[in-house]
Structure formats: structure tokens, C-alpha cells
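As a warm-up, study this chain.
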Amino acid sequence: MFKGKVEALPVDERRRLAALLVSLRHKDSVDYPARMARKIDDDLPENWVTLEEMDRRLTT
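Now compare it with the structure written out below.
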């Protein structure tokens, strides 16, 4: 039903929609804020993701 409308969206709008859907998926997760805080506070460079890697993950 909505698939055609989503496919017709410009790329930037589809990316925004994807981000919204991901945030909604995590919205009600009880442990999500704690997991994100641990990731943000991680000071070990070997656990970090480069901007290029993040872009690759988001575009594939």
C-alpha cells in the first residue's frame, strides 16, 4: 500500500524515513538508552566506527 509512495520519495526523504523507523523501533526498548550510553562512553578506538564505515552501513 505505502511501498509505491516510499519508492517514489527522493533519496534524502527515504533516508529520513529510515532513520525515523529505526528510532521508533528502539523507542520502547527498555535497555536501549543504557546500551547507547555505553557505546558513546566507549573510549577504546578499536571499537569506534569511522564516518566512512557508518556511511557504508547506512547505504547498503
